[in-house]
Amino acid sequence: MKRSNAVAWCICWLVIMAGVAIFSPSGFGAGRAATTAITIVDQNGRIVPNAQPSATSQIFDVTVGPNGMLQFSPSTVTISVGDTVRWTWGSSNHSVTSGTPCTVDGQFCSPNDTNCSAGQLSNMGFVYEHTFTVAGTYSYFCHLHCSVGMTGTVNVETAPMAQDAFSRKVHGGAGTFDVPLPLTGNVGVECRSGGATNDYQVIIDFATSVTVEDAAVTSGTGSVSSFSVSGSEVTVNLTGVTNVQTITVTLINVNDGTHMGDVPVSMGVLIGDANGNASVNASDVSLTKSQVGVVVSGSNFREDVNANGVINAVDVAQVKAEVGTALPP
Ligand SMILES: [Ca+2]
Ligand SMILES: [Ca+2]
Ligand SMILES: [Cu+2]
What is the separation, in whole angstroms, between the first and last Cα of the chain? Predict the structure, then answer.
């Protein structure tokens, strides 16, 4: 190795080590893992950032030439749109070069996504990241070792489509009633109160059975107390949901066997908005009054604002107390 190269190599390592020292986990913003106190270290001893570029995107690690073997490990990764693959060199003289082996297609490449056709090789300890924003299957290879089979694949998947979503409440002995939560357009408005701890339950249905890695509130105020999956139906229990807001619950890494990704569902919370037009005024009061004493059913359950199974003066008073409130635009 020429002296100038050796100096550059040393400087490179100093920069990497300084980076590890500077970028402690607390240096990153809030991610969904940020509430844990655990520091995660990868197979190379580097601290894995506990925050991702956006609320739910993830980083997937691949080792380039582990123990000098001419391969990528794992050679295939399956990620969702918006996720990042992070390649770390486990030995020297390799590249990550996109293309169907062994033809460069210029979509991405180490060290910095430029001049991919040059096939620049990097050395042990080097790290290259690429974020995939478009679904598809991406092939890549090592420019020097492609001919001996040093190839890899990144499958980038989109999320399964939710079929519908609801906010569900049991109205005492009157039955269980659902407020639809449309997946596009204006949000559905939940007008019923959440009890002492402001609890709500959101149901999300898919076309086929799914698995779900996690569920989290990704916008608005509230938190997931629990979630469960039964076949194609996901139930998310929320607590601490404040009034007068739009809250978004995101199912993380929903997988139906052919699609994988995050599925967000939003709900407007506006107690007393019996007619669901995103503001509480005199018309909600009169609508509730008109149903006093009427048996709670699928057509008037919104007027049972406290969801106790009867519509009476208590519901009317609760609507009156909220007059003047409106969902933020
Ligand atoms: Ca209204
Ligand atoms: Ca009631
Ligand atoms: Cu190689």
Answer: 63
